[in-house]
């Protein structure tokens, strides 16, 4: 990995690990709908000029329906449910539960006909990851509402379905166009709800700062950096950040908000990581093995 690639990788690990902390702070004074409106609206104002400079909306063509579905599954739904859930659970717990996204992604891939993940190792990884999620949830006694766990399950499901929609129906559309337009549509959709739930007094500087960092750094800048990271090291290696972001979220929750990180949560996270690694590992094609010279070692992917 080049020095530029390494810097981008580290930056993304941190930038997408801190939203859970900032959301936890912001929902102390803002409703989930208002928070999503501010986050998507500000980020859209930053990204849409980039979209227009790179061809505008012409690349979308007749794929508006899958784009809307993507926006709902990847942004509108998860960001609202995550904000709502963090009114009742810690940011550390929320971040750790997000680590189950690759596991759900494997289940979705199998349901869409991908038989590659039906191997014994993949199935064992799914069971191991499921046990890890049970440990993360079961050992945390501060969950005040089962609804919050249901909301987190919806967040995980949305984050897992979004990439499937993206790769299946939006492959020819520029990534920045997909994200920019999705953010703009979500901001418009949440505007009426934000107006009805507008805070009666000006939020504290801590909340204003959290929203600003969420919108500018963790959303607009983050997506631009992520596109650069993919171009630098490839999409497969770039997805490794999803295994590190939850750990960053947990560490920040403990360090800044003094949240407790139980032994069960730590062990569960390790099991989820191990299960995700097993479940998402790709097998080398048989034909590739046959074509490769016997004396030439296979490259690890």
What does this structure look like?
- The chain is mainly alpha-helical and 301 residues long.
- It has one domain.
- Helix content is 74%, strand content 0%.
- The chain has helices spanning 3-15, 19-26, 32-53, 64-85, 91-98, 101-111, 120-138, 146-169, 175-196, 205-233, 235-238, 241-257, 263-280, 286-291.
- Helix 3 runs antiparallel to helix 4, helix 3 crosses helix 10 and helix 4 (64-85) crosses helix 9 (175-196).
- 42% of the residues are buried.
Question: Summary?
Answer:
The protein is mainly alpha-helical and 301 residues long.
Features:
globular; mainly alpha
Structural class: mainly alpha
- Mean pLDDT across all residues, rounded? 83
Can you summarize the main beta sheet? Answer: none
Order of secondary-structure elements = HHHHHHHHHHHHHH
- Helix share of residues? over 70%
Low-confidence stretches: 286-301
Individual helix count: 14
Using DSSP, what is the number of strands?
Answer: 0
Strand content: under 5%
What is the alpha-carbon Rg in Å? 20 Å
Kindly report how far apart the N and C termini lie: 13 Å
How many structural domains can be distinguished in the coordinates? 1
Shape: globular
Can you lay out the helices and strands and say which pair or pack?
Elements: H1 3-15, H2 19-26, H3 32-53, H4 64-85, H5 91-98, H6 101-111, H7 120-138, H8 146-169, H9 175-196, H10 205-233, H11 235-238, H12 241-257, H13 263-280, H14 286-291
Helix pairs in contact: 1-10, 1-12, 2-5, 2-10, 3-4, 3-9, 3-10, 4-8, 4-9, 5-12, 6-8, 7-13, 9-10
């Amino acid at each position: 990995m080049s020095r530029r690639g390494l810097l981008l990788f580290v930056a993304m690990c941190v930038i997408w690990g801190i939203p859970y902390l900032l959301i936890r702070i912001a929902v102390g004074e803002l409703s989930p709908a208002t928070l999503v409106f501010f986050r998507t609206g500000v980020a859209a104002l930053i990204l849409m000029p980039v979209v227009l400079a790179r061809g505008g909306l012409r690349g979308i063509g007749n794929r508006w329906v899958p784009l809307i579905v993507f926006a709902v599954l990847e942004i509108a739904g998860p960001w609202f449910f995550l904000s709502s859930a963090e009114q009742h659970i810690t940011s550390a717990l929320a971040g750790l539960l997000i680590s189950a996204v690759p596991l759900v992604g494997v289940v979705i891939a199998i349901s869409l006909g991908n038989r590659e993940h039906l191997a014994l190792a993949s199935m064992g990884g799914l069971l191991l990851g499921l046990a890890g999620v049970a440990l993360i949830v079961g050992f945390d006694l501060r969950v005040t509402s089962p609804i919050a766990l249901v909301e987190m399950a919806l967040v995980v499901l949305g984050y897992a379905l979004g990439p499937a929609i993206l790769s299946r129906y939006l492959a020819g559309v520029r990534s920045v166009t997909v994200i920019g337009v999705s953010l703009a549509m979500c901001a418009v959709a949440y505007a009426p709800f934000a107006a009805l739930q507008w805070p009666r007094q000006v939020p504290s500087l801590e909340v204003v700062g959290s929203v600003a960092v969420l919108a500018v750094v963790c959303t607009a800048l983050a997506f631009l950096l992520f596109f650069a990271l993919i171009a630098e090291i490839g999409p497969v290696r770039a997805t490794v950040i999803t295994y590190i972001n939850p750990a960053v979220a947990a560490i920040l929750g403990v360090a800044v908000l003094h949240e407790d990180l139980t032994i069960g949560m730590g062990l569960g996270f390790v099991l989820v990581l191990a299960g995700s690694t097993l479940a998402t590992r790709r097998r080398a094609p048989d034909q590739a093995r046959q074509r490769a010279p016997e004396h030439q070692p296979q490259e690890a992917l």
